[in-house]
Amino acid sequence: MPIRVYLDWNATTPLRPEARAAMVAAYDLVGNPSSVHAEGREARRLLEAARAALAGAVGGLPRNVVFTSSGTEANALALSPGLKGPSGGPVARLLVSAVEHASVLAGGRFSADAVSQIRVTRSGAVDLDHLKALLGSGPPALVSIMAANNETGALQPIAEAARIAHEAGGLLHVDAIQAFGKMPFDIKEVGVDLATLSAHKIGGPKGIGALVAAEGVTGLEPVLRGGGQELGRRAGTENVAGIAGFGAAVSAAVQALAEDAERVRSLRNRLENGLRAVPGTTIFSQEAGRLPNTTLFTAPGLKAETAVIGFDLEGIAVSSGSACSSGKVQPSHVLSAMGFDPKTAQGAVRLSLGWSTQEADINRTLEAWRKLGNNLLKG
């Protein structure tokens, strides 16, 4: 049986060898990182080494890194009324872009009536004029905008959004989960107050996330209360092995970032050229800056759920651009916010590449697309 082709890296990535090795070594440690004896101190050493790796990778300070169980939990921790920063606050409302992850659209701990959505353009970029208008119509706000969209790969004008938010006395939270490890991201350079990261999108284990705060940000209220772990910001004994794997994955991803991005972008461009051989093919957000690894496309008459199954039967893992709920495929809220009709949105298929993607994988994918096209593109 041929080896399968994995093109769903935006959903999750393979575990990097460096992360696996770090986790195996950590599993041999018996100590609790909160214990003061030698075994506890060794566990603490691994935890703090990973914290330093994350902080260094995004231009933060180790003491401002909070480990969580996931990116979703990190987002929930960040989206909290009362936050203050050097440039503003306390925040009393939340402004989120219309293309955010569901964990941000849920509003965190803000009441529903304190949450407003920021429009996006046809290319998927935040409408900065609408952001300015929203910021000028009420008390200080926390603005939450993802660095790069998980479906289209579209990059957001984070530095400009930070400037606008700060001038209005607000703060900026960035869900950087998809961008981190695929492009440079420094919270000091772009003016981010809070950034969410996740291990399994960069070759680390599933079930570990982190929130990184800029220096001077205060008012974070823990989601989980109990013990004093994470400087009182997140109770519960830390997942030392998972955190060690996270740190190792960060170091590996940062070291290979430039080389991987250039190679993957070349493969992505070749893939898109092949997809366009089918008349009427649309590549979403192609006119915008995008992550180097992400393609969201459709073609006339394409049904995403059928296409995903068809690719899977050909040995290729891809995903739908639609969100699934209780087994029912719904139009992508991202594409709907960009102004595409439900039929178009339901036909979107996402292909996402990574560091181990090869030319042969692209060849097989395009061969499968040519084979599937005659059967899928009807109506």
UniProtKB/TrEMBL annotation:
EC annotation from Swiss-Prot or TrEMBL: 2.8.1.7
Keyword Transmembrane helix in annotation: no
This protein's record includes keyword Ubl conjugation: no
Pfam family, one: Aminotran_5
Enzyme's top EC category: transferase
Boundaries of every Aminotransferase class V domain copy: 5-364
Cofactor(s) annotated in UniProt: pyridoxal 5'-phosphate
Swiss-Prot/TrEMBL catalytic activity: (sulfur carrier)-H + L-cysteine = (sulfur carrier)-SH + L-alanine
Family: Belongs to the class-V pyridoxal-phosphate-dependent aminotransferase family. NifS/IscS subfamily.
Name listed for the protein in its UniProt record: Cysteine desulfurase
Species assigned in the record: Bradyrhizobium iriomotense
Gene from which this protein is expressed: nifS_1
